[in-house]
Amino acid sequence: MNIIIGVSAIVGALVGSSVCYLWLKKSSQNRFAHLELEAKAKAKAIENEAELLLQEAEVKIKSKGLELEKAFQERVAKTEERNRTLILETKSLQAQQERLGQLEQRIQEKEAKLQALEAEKEAQIREAIDKMEQLASLTKEEARSYILEKVEEQSRSEIAAIVRKYEKVAKEEGEKKANYILAQATTRYAGDFAGERLINLITLPSDEHKGRIIGKEGRNIKALEMLLGVDIIIDETPGVIIVSSFNLYRRAIATRVIEILVEDGRIHPGRIEEVHEKVVAEFEKKTYEEGESIIIDMGLFPMHEELVRLIGRLKYRASYGQNALAHTLEVARLAKVMATEMGGDEKLAMRAGLLHDIGKALTQDMGGSHVDIGADLCRRHGEHPTVINAIYAHHGHEEPDSVESAAVCAADTLSAARPGARREVLESFTKRVKEIEDIATSKPYVTHAYAINAGREIRVFVNAHKMSDNEAVLLSREIAKEIEEKVQYPGEIKVNVIRETRATALAK
Question: 194-298: which CATH topology?
C-alpha cells in the first residue's frame, strides 16, 4: 500500500514537472518572438536611415564635384589668359631686343668713327707741336716748364690779392654777423626794467592804526623792528607808514606782516611773532611756485628743487639797482636768441642764462662771491658743465668753452650795460650796509643783525644765555671799532646790542 502511494506521488510529480516545463517553454518562445520582432523593426529603421544618409552623401559628392569642375574651368581660363599675356610680352621683348641690337650696332659704328677722329686729332697735335718746337727752338717739356713758371708768377700775385680780399670780406662779414646777432637779440627781447627802491609804503585805513602799531610805550613797533629786521618810520603823513630796508626779501616779508596785522586789528608781540612765522612759510612756498612757473614757461624742467626755489628768490634781490630776476630772465632770452643764430643749443643757452647769477640769491645770507656760490650749487645739483662754465665765464674767471657760454657772457653784458639798467650809487650803499651786518654777525653768540635807518643804525641780537650785560657792552664797542676800520661811510653809525631773556609758564 505504501509502495502504491509512493509510486503515485512520483508519477504526480513527474506530470507536474512536465506541465511546468511545457508552460515555461511556451512562455520563452513568446518572449523570444517579441524580441525578434523588435530587432527586425530596429534593423529596418537603421536600414532606412542608412539609405537616407547615402542619398545625402551622393548629393554632396555631386555638388562638390560641380564646384571642383567650376573651379577647374576658371583656373584653366586664367592659365590660358596668362599664356596669352606671356606670348604678347615675349613678342614685345623680342621686338625690343631687335631694336637694342640695331642701336648697339649704330653705337659701335659711331665709336669706330670717334676712334678714327681721335687718332687723326692726335696726329695733327703731334704735327703742330713739332712745328712749334722747330719755330721756338724749345722741346715740349721746356715749353711746358716755361709756361707753368710764368703762370705761377702771375697767379701768386693774384692769389695774394684774392686772399687779402677775402680776409677783409670775412672780417667785415663777421662783424656784420655779430652786429646782426646782437641786434636781433636786443630787438626781439625788450625787457621791462623795474627800479628797486629802499622803502615800501603801507596805506592804513585810518591814523588810529598808527597808535596800534606803535603800541603801549612803543612795545609793538620795537617788537616789529627787532623781529623783522627793518626800520619802520611813522611820521605825520596821514594814513601811511614807511618800511625801510636794503634787503628786498626782508622788506617784502615785513610789509606783508604789517598788512595782515592791520587787517586783523590784533597787534601785540605774541601775535606779531605768530603772523611772522606764517608769512615766512608763505613766502618760501611762493618763491618756489614762482621759480617753478618760470622753469615750466621756459621748458627747462626738470631742475633741482633748491635751484627752483632760489630762482624765485631772485625776485627779492637787486644788483646795482637792477632786479636780479628781471636781469636773469633777460639774459636767458637774449642768450637763447644768440645761440640760435650761431647754431648752438638754445635750451642749454637759456638754462645757463637762467642760472648764471643764481648765487646772488644766497649772498645776502652767506656772504662771499656769487660766482663761486652759484657754481658750487649747480655742480652739487648735477647741472651741465656748460652751465657751470657760463657762471665762471660771465665774470672772466674762465674762458667760454662753447657757443652757449659765449652767448650768456654777451647777453649779461648787454643786459647790464644798456642805459638805465643799473645804478651804481644804490649798489654801493647796499654793499656798505651788507658789510656792516656781516661784521656784526661774525662775532660769537650773535644770532641776528639788522641794519636800519638807512644804514645809520645796526641792531645786534645776542644769545642771552651765553652773553652777560657787561659782555654786551664790550661787544657793541668792538663792533663799532671794526666798522670804523673797515667800512667807508658818511656821518655816524649807532650800534645797539640787544640781549633779551624770556620766561614762559603755562596755566592749566
Answer: Ribosomal Protein S8; Chain: A, domain 1 (3.30.1370)
